[in-house]
Specification:
Number of strands: 0
Shape: globular
CATH superfamily: Cytochrome c-like domain
CATH architecture: Orthogonal Bundle
Distance between the termini: 61 Å
Structural class: mainly alpha
Order of helices and strands: HHHHH
Radius of gyration: 18 Å
CATH class: Mainly Alpha
Length: 140
Amino acid sequence: MPSRKQVNFPRSRRALAAVALLYSLGSAQAQQPSAAQLSLCMACHGPQGNSQMATTPSLAGQPQVFLENQMVLIREGLRDIPVMKGLLDKVTDPEIVALASYFSAQTPVRQPSGTVDNIVYLRGQQTARTMLCATCHLPD
């Protein structure tokens, strides 16, 4: 009898499977994220997910599915965020759903805008067009 070979799927296929699992879990009632998990996230992403640091994105009010997908991609090593390396390693799919549900339900706080540097602004607009940023990042 021939021996059974173990099939090793590429990381991208594992991540897609994990995302599919999240969609199926999304219909189930999500658990509440633990205070420790929330504290860890808010240490960088700010109170209720409203970042106080220019280089750290706010999570508050982001679409739940977007947050779930990003956390899975980071956990599976398909999205390389050096400061988050290892933070999601042992976070389960139901915990990811709970965290995403919590942060998506928070109200985003708009930061007051300062003086606009027109040269930098125009360069940013050009970069955004070239990189197709508006495909995901809508005006609101």
